[in-house]
Amino acid sequence: MSRQAISPGKNFFAGGFGGVCLVFAGHPLDTIKVRIQTMPVPGPGESPLYRGTFDCFKQTLAKEGFKGLYKGMAAPIIGVTPMFAVCFFGFGLGKKLQQKTPDDVLTYPQLFAAGMLSGVFTTAIMAPGERIKCLLQIQAAKGEVKYAGPMDCVKQLYKESGIRGIYRGTALTLMRDVPASGMYFMTYEWLKRLLTPEGKSPNELSVPSVLFAGGMAGIFNWAVAIPPDVLKSRFQTAPEGKYPNGFRDVLRELLREEGVASLYKGFTAVMLRAFPANAACFLGFEMAMKFLNWAAPSL
What we know:
One of its GO terms (molecular function) is O-acyl-L-carnitine transmembrane transporter activity. It holds the Pfam family Mito_carr. By secondary structure, this protein is mainly α. Helix content is about 75%, strand content about 0%.
């Protein structure tokens, strides 16, 4: 059976649509994840700000209403559409570069390598978007209003520290996204092949199969990404100059004060979010790709 030729351009547009689906499905639990990861360490005799994922969820609803779960969503919506477009473009390009003919079936290490390339491609967009999102999410939790919105946050960061202030945490974003993206796409392609009936193409998978493969890809992605994500969230929301040696200082402080378990802060929120958000992402991607293949089959 002839396979559909890989088109990085179609991947770009379909990936952008998938990214929008991911944000709408997953942002509430992302807000909770960031608030748990960045909450202050309780002093002697004090209770923690949040006792866990569900307590954070209840407090957010009680204090800020349903809209509180979507705080900071403008930044990822603005950033996620091009970011996922570039992410899927990078994956498509990574696959195409390793193919000699359109019918070549890539090995799983080749798919992992293509996925890692996508992580490199997205960092330029992801790092500032994550910085802005995290700052807006935690200021709402603290009851402070330093930033009026994403653009005001960008202006203030640039005024305080220049372009470096906006891109703070780029190295940690790379450390998180390069291996995690490799795992993400490899897992998705593996499950697509596993779920494809005999004699059928992976492009003909049913909606439930696509949702399952996409959701599980998100789970595997975050299983790799959580420790560097905790370090990134802590580093990007810390006051200027708190961690002069970067992520090494963050890591030392976390291990010293809270132990190894601190590297998995927000684990429940992450995993609760990972399945539906990434299921929505890949379903959106596959639907958009089918439309593009129908509308422009020769591209």
